[in-house]
Amino acid sequence: MNRSLSLFLVFLLVLVLLGGIGTWYLGPAVVSLAVDEDRRDSPFYLLHLTAIPGGAESSPFRSELTELVTADGGQLLWRAATIQLLEGRVQDEWQNLQLFEFARGGDFVQMLTSTGYRQLRAAHPLLLRLALGTSEAPDGIVSSGAAVLSLFRVDEDSAEFARGARELASNLEQFEGSLIWEAPLVDLDGDVGWNRVMVFEFPRVDAAQRWVRDPTTMTQRALIKRGTSGMVTLIVQSS
Question: How far is CA 40 from CA 24, 48, 67, 97, 193, in A?
């Protein structure tokens, strides 16, 4: 084997190793976003949920994250606090959520890989967090009132989920509600695999609670659940 070929093979090996390190550190979803030119230059939305073990309600993490996002060209679209965990495990009772918009997916990747973001995470080692992303914008923003947020782990090509999702909004008007966001998701940390979100807006918490207890709603949610391997539903109050 001549020297030029050996150097070329070493170069390829280095590229493979760097790619593997990048995928391990950032996760395949973020790496895919970083290398896809169309997605990198299109708007990107970060849904970020947090909880503090022991039930503490305050943490500077959210305000510090908002500052980082703003510094990298993003903006806070919505924030809310959980009123009730309707469906899911105890560890799914996220206390707070934030929805951020980045004008470019590349701006999000820049924020995620920044020294400031690494320092922020290191400064809050006990904070539980869930980071989900999508390129699909919400139809509206819940600036006040309440919302029902559902996360799903949808089985591939699930006809039951598609059918149930179409019908779930059929009775919303009776409760002054509306579907403001239905979008595919990527789990940016790759831990739990949530891949779909639905957000329903209501003027008040009691209207949201009456909707989820309605027999029609309960039937449609049961149909949706048949096409999933996981489901979390929270009633949240905009803050």
Answer: 20, 19, 21, 24, 22
Give dist(CA 149, CA 131) in Å, integer.
15
Of 161, 156, 149, residue with least CA distance to 222: 161
Can you list the alpha helix ranges (DSSP code H) found in the chain?
Answer: 3-26, 28-35, 37-40, 61-71, 105-112, 115-123, 159-168, 205-213, 215-226
User: Got the DSSP string for 95-155?
Assistant: SEEEEEEESSHHHHHHHHTSHHHHHHHHH-TT-EEEEEEESPPPSS---SSEEEEEEEEEP
Give pTM, 2 decimals.
0.83
Read off the amino acid at residue 103: A
- Among all chains, which residue has been given the structure tokens 């949240």? 236
The number of residues in the chain equals 239
CA distances from residue 191 to 8, 129, 153, 175 in whole angstroms, order as listed: 36, 11, 12, 35
- The torsion defined by the Cα of 192, 68, 238 and 39, in degrees rounded to 10, comes to -60
State the greatest distance between any 2 C-alpha atoms of the chain, in Å, as a whole number.
Answer: 77
What would the two tokens of residue 51 be?
A: 């909880």
Q: What is the pLDDT of residues 3-50, one digit of tens each?
A: 554 444 443 343 333 344 334 344 555 655 655 556 678 999 999 999
Distance, CA of 96 to chain centre: 12
